[in-house]
Amino acid sequence: MYFLQQILNGLSLGAVYSLIAVGFALVFNILKFSNFSQGGLITVCAYIGFMITRTFGLGLGATLALTALAGGVIALLVERVAFRRLRRKNSPLIYYFVSSITMGILLENLITIYFSSNFYAFPRFFARSTVRFGPFFMATTDLAMLGISLSSLLILMIVLYRTTFGTAIRALSMDMNAARLMGINVNFAIAGTFFLVGVFAGLGGVFLGINYTLYPQLGKLIVKGFVASVVGGLGNILGAVVGAILLGLLEVILVGVPGIGSGLSPVVVFVILLVFLIVRPQGIAGIIVKEKV
Amino acid sequence: MKKLAIITIVLFAAAAMLVSASGQREDGAIRIGVIQDLSGPTSVWGNAVARGAELAVSEINAAGGIDGRQVELRTYDVRLSPQEAITAYNRLVDQDRVTAIVGPPISNIGLSLAPVAQAKGVPIVGSFIDPRVTVQPNGEPWTNMFLMQPSSVQYSEIIADFALTELGARNLAVMYDQTNAFSVSLVEPFRNYVNAHGGNVALEVTYTSDDRDFRTQLSQIQRSGADAVYLPIYIQEAVLTLQQAEQVGLDIPMIGGLDFAPPFTDLLPDPTLADGIYVANNYSDSEPQLVDVRAAYMDMFGEEPINKAFKGYDKILIIADAIRRAGSTEPAAVSRAIARTSNLRGTTGILTISPDNHQPVGLSMVMYQIINGEYSELGRHVPESHR
């Protein structure tokens, strides 16, 4: 009974990680680098969501929609400022990586400057904090998060596999030059991808803020998203979701294991990450997206 | 090339002279440093301490200063970083030439400053409650570190005694941050006191400062059947703990550390989440010595002073009193005088510092219970062994 309850808790945690991991996977899929600016983006979105609810007193749905939109716009700006020039100059991959980390730190520090003299928490969105299923219970926010994550992932899949725009993105992920020669507007498709990444950062930011309160280092949680996307297979969106849920379950279970607990659980998680990198670098999904050459 | 080298040397020399000149103000103002977290996760505390100190200094200056000299504060933000605290300390000592320093309420920072202050000689009056900040491993006090509120040993004994005698709890659980000196230092004395006085610490669960999800730990506490849980944790984790305790259905009395003192309930998404928490504060809002200071604080900053603001105020009182008694602004003389602070009337109580461990003597705590999101006072609690 207790164990099943822990599994439910792990699923909830995994749902948060999956929103982050999918953002990673989307960018890696096309540009072949791990976009660490996403942590900063998530932090900024969490604060934007908070400002929106505080200023307009909106409910969860409207807050999520507006924050997702704002996240998309900021992600477009990030792409414009940090990555477009690099792409135009055909810069080596390491530049993208450095640029993304710099951008992440910049966003985090902007938040520190403007918001860190106080401490914030989202207001309550739900009258009841938990929902019971017989002997089990789940936090209402977790349930909402699980539902919204899964449905937004489904929408993402439809966009990627059923629309012309999705086809363009998938074509880019295979060969950017060939795609350009075939008449695909590369800048537009990449900007669109970043917009999607921003939307996920917006959703993730609001949920992280609700669950973990607002603080400028909120974006540090992207490390978990990164681990999840490596375990799942870098660049693979479904793999990232599976990796994230496994990671959430693993963490919850490890904390309960006597002798490991909270202190040693990160050690075990990173050992597993190392084992994955050595034994199965292609991740669970089994398809490795080739690094950009 | 040679020219460039000469210019560089001249510039460096000029800069060095400027730096040293800025410190030479023998007949000018007395400088006191302030090291606080003005930004970062504990900035609510840091800003309150800095403002309390500012208020005390403005009152001292309005009354003619210390021995006719005005007092000037130099404040640095260290963002909860022990590394930045050391940099700020060095800067206050080497560049600003301060007489003494108002320290933060952060034990991790106090631990990192203690050996530096020992070497450089400028005293720090802080409210870091880990006793290791004021006492060296060999039992001698750190020469320049002073605590002005009950240490973690005193605090946890008061809390443990309250849980045993007033709440009638026998089986207690503890959840704490194993990477935080403040948190860790509050656990062992609690456990020892409970075990020695007929109770039992049934379960201790830990987390690390990066953790944001405590539901597994809270479920373990619930399964352990403990009568009450003791939470010596920081404010942000405290908010998360209450939210998540509600989610896992943990509904037993909780006894908080100092971070649950006001304005804690204002930071919650819903103040009634904190219902059923017992917390100890350094003073009672109804005590007469606070009235004038509170009014002046609200006048100056337009907000209600919190616990840490009164501590900032008292830290300046302690330093000013020591400068007067020492008759000097020489840091070593002031440090010796702080160690002999006796019966000084502060806002948080009558302050006497023991020269043996540089910790205050005979301070008690006022217990509160949070009911409907409001703090309801239960009176001062003094364990038998503290009387």
SSE topology:
The complex is a heterodimer of chains A (293) and B (387).
Chain A: H1 2-31, H2 37-56, H3 60-88, H4 93-115, E1 130-133, E2 136-139, H5 140-162, H6 164-174, H7 176-181, H8 186-212, H9 222-232, H10 237-256, H11 261-279
Helix pairs in contact in A: 1-5, 1-8, 1-9, 1-10, 2-3, 2-4, 2-8, 3-4, 3-8, 5-6, 5-8, 6-8, 9-10, 10-11
Chain B: H1 2-23, E1 30-36, H2 43-62, E2 71-77, H3 82-94, E3 100-102, H4 107-120, E4 124-126, E5 145-147, H5 152-165, E6 171-177, H6 181-185, H7 188-196, E7 200-207, H8 215-224, E8 228-231, H9 235-248, E9 254-256, H10 264-267, E10 277-281, H11 291-301, H12 307-326, H13 331-338, E11 344-345, E12 350-351, E13 365-371, E14 374-381
Parallel strand pairs in B: 1-2, 1-3, 3-4, 4-5, 6-7, 6-8, 8-9, 9-10
Antiparallel strand pairs in B: 10-13, 11-12, 13-14
Mean pLDDT of chain B: 89
Q: CATH first level of chain A: which class?
A: Mainly Alpha
CATH superfamily of the largest domain in chain B: Response regulator
> Biggest β-sheet of chain A: count, sense, barrel?
2 strands, antiparallel
CATH topology of the largest domain in chain B: Rossmann fold
DSSP helix fraction of chain B: 40-55%
Mean pLDDT across all amino acids of chain A: 86
Round the Cα radius of gyration of chain B to an integer and report it.
Answer: 22 Å
Largest beta sheet: strand ordering of chain B: 7-6-8-9-10-13-14
Question: Main beta sheet of chain B, described?
Answer: 7 strands, mixed
- Gross morphology of chain B is globular
Can you walk me through this structure?
The complex is a heterodimer of chains A (293) and B (387). With 293 residues, chain A is an all-alpha fold. Chain A has one domain (2-116, 139-279): Orthogonal Bundle (ABC transporter involved in vitamin B12 uptake, BtuC), CATH 1.10.3470. Helix content of chain A is 75%, strand content 3%. Chain A has a two-stranded antiparallel sheet with strand order 1-2. The longest helix of chain A is centred in the N-terminal third of the chain and has 30 residues, at 2-31. Chain A is globular. Chain A starts with a helix and ends in a 14-residue tail after the last helix. Chain B is α/β, with parallel strands linked by helices and 387 residues long. In chain B, 42% of the residues lie in helices and 18% in strands. Chain B has helices at residues 2-23, 43-62, 82-94, 107-120, 152-165, 181-185, 188-196, 215-224, 235-248, 264-267, 291-301, 307-326, 331-338, and strands at residues 30-36, 71-77, 100-102, 124-126, 145-147, 171-177, 200-207, 228-231, 254-256, 277-281, 344-345, 350-351, 365-371, 374-381. Chain B starts with a helix and ends in a 6-residue tail after the last strand. The model of chain B is unreliable at 20-25 (pLDDT under 50). Chains A and B meet through helix 1, helix 10 and helix 11 of A and helix 2, strand 7, helix 8 and helix 9 of B.
